[in-house]
Specification:
By secondary structure, the protein is of the alpha+beta class. Helix content is 35%, strand content 25%. Helix 3 packs across helix 4.
């Protein structure tokens, strides 16, 4: 008579034990993390899919390779079968309700399995979200109770009945204790993953509302090749017209970055594509004419999931409003090499007054520019939904670039 489980069943059992311990300890801490838990939330979804797939594989394996006969009959035997059945309900139902939960949430947070493979949302109405949320939480607590009953039953056989039942679920006799350590190890790994709290999440958050980032209402210097303004100062009087202010060409390698406070940490990113037209004379800043254009789809915080949210309708809305622009003809000097530009930032279909400061260094045709601005994301309706509640109201923008100045002849 068969006394032990097959090797495949043993491997799947302990993989699931490790995954469930990790998943439950991580899940219990998610609500306390807020946006800091964006990365942990993404990991929780990925592990949930793994649990679902391993459970289905375990069921198929059980149909192909029959398990050993039950160790007990009667009430205790029936209770053991009920616990096993309940565990399968939990291991299938919890991932499915979690999938339903994220699919029906009004904020569509993309799912990338372990940051790589996209996982689709179910095409179901948002009206099911309440059911999904309640069911997922209920199944989580039910799973914890069933696992405790399962462990208690195994310990009862091992230490009270002393029938060495646990050896049936070890690849070799005597290894059950070592394998059983996977459960507390998985629990501790889940706690460690949540303590890393990065996100965001968004991490939930789509916290990329930093998207306001568009604020990069970049500095005067934030432009790319700019056409020279060469006008012959028309007027016949004998006196010569003043020279046209020089045009600036941005050299490759400049940065246009943004950051927003998210709880105790910062979410930071940058725009990869931006350009502009700059006409500016440091000695006569009042003659400036600067227009900067930022490609909002190029915003990135270094995480594919959060980048997708950043460009989405709750934040930059790059599909509907692909560009942000900053325009100014009002620049004044506040110190030797320091300037303030007062202009207009246009973002997500709204235009608002915006100022920025910058400093110049260098001489001759080569200049270095550094500057910053603070954007009120609420003024542009960025990140005003649930995913932006943990974000600071102000987004900081910083730019740094080298430019070549072309003086008109």
């Amino acid at each position: 008579m068969q006394q032990r489980y097959s090797l495949g069943a043993i491997v799947l059992h302990w993989l699931l034990a490790l995954a469930l311990a990790f998943q439950l300890s991580l899940g219990l801490r998610l609500e306390d993390l807020g946006l800091r838990g964006f990365a942990a939330f993404q990991l929780h979804k990925s592990v949930g899919v793994v649990v679902l797939l391993l459970t289905l594989l375990r069921l198929l394996w059980r149909l192909r390779y029959r398990p050993p006969p039950a160790a007990e009959r009667g009430f205790t035997g029936g209770l053991a079968k009920a616990v096993h059945f309940g565990l399968y309900v939990f291991m299938i139902g919890a991932p499915l309700t979690g999938w339903l939960l994220v699919s029906t949430d009004k904020v569509k947070v993309p799912t990338l399995l372990f940051g790589m493979a996209p996982w689709p949302h179910l095409p179901l109405p948002e009206s099911l979200n309440g059911f999904a949320h309640g069911s997922h939480a209920l199944l989580g607590w039910l799973g914890i109770a069933l696992i405790l009953l399962h462990v208690a039953g195994a310990l009862r056989h091992q230490w009270l009945i002393r029938d060495n039942l646990m050896a049936r679920m070890a690849p070799a006799r005597g290894l059950w204790l070592l394998l059983a350590l996977l459960v507390p190890v998985g629990w501790l790994l889940g706690i460690a993953a949540s303590d890393r709290g990065e996100p965001v999440a968004a991490q939930e958050e789509a916290p990329l509302s930093e998207t306001d980032v568009a604020e990069p209402a970049a500095p005067d210097a934030a432009a790319n090749p700019a056409p020279t303004v060469n006008e012959a100062a028309a007027v016949p009087p004998p006196s010569a017209a003043p020279p046209s202010p020089p045009a600036w060409t941005i050299k490759p390698g400049g940065t246009l970055a943004f950051s927003v406070r998210n709880g105790a940490s910062d979410i930071a990113g940058r725009f990869a594509r931006w350009q502009g037209e700059i006409v500016f004379d440091p000695d006569q800043p009042e003659s400036a004419d600067i227009a900067i254009t930022i490609d909002l789809a190029s915003a990135s915080v270094g995480d594919a999931t959060q980048d997708a949210m950043l460009g989405g309708a709750d934040f930059l809305d790059a599909a509907t409003h692909p560009r942000a622009t900053f325009r100014t003809q009002s620049v004044r000097r506040t110190d030797a090499n320091r300037y303030v530009a007062q202009g207009t930032l246009s973002l997500r279909g709204k235009s608002r007054p915006q100022s920025l400061t910058f400093t110049l260094s260098g001489s001759g045709p080569s200049r270095h520019v550094e500057g910053s601005a603070t954007i009120d994301r609420a003024a542009f309706g960025i990140g005003m939904g649930e995913t932006g509640t943990s974000l600071a109201p102000q987004v900081s923008v910083h730019f740094s670039l080298d430019a070549e100045v072309h003086v008109a002849e």
